[in-house]
Amino acid sequence: MLTNPNVDPALLRQLAGMGNNLNQIARAIHSQDWKPVDRVHIITALSSLQRELSLMRMEHTADDR
Fold first, then answer.
1. Domain range spanning residue 39?
2. CA distances from 34 to 13, 30, 49, 63 (A)
3. 57 within some domain
4. I want to staple 38 with a disulfide (CB 3.0 to 4.6 A). Which of 3, 18, 34, 63 is the partner?
5. pLDDT confidence of residue 63
6. CB 21 within 8 A of CB 42
7. Higher confidence at residue 53 or residue 63?
8. Structural domain count, the chain
9. pLDDT at residue 56 is higher than 60
10. Name one Pfam family in it (predicted).
11. Is a pLDDT exceeding 60 seen at residue 64?
12. Is the entire prediction scored with pTM above 0.90?
């Protein structure tokens, strides 16, 4: 795992918590019988989270340059 001393440790803890939550969601999705419409809603929400996290990563990476 890469570390950056300029990143706020509180932010890293929050991101780690989000990652754990996403893993729990993924396990739930794979272990239950979901309707197709429910899967679409979940995938849409996860895609939105991915975009937001990518933006955060770019913002914080840009600070390091």
1. 34-65
2. 31, 9, 20, 41
3. yes
4. 34
5. 54
6. no
7. 53
8. 1
9. yes
10. MobC
11. no
12. no
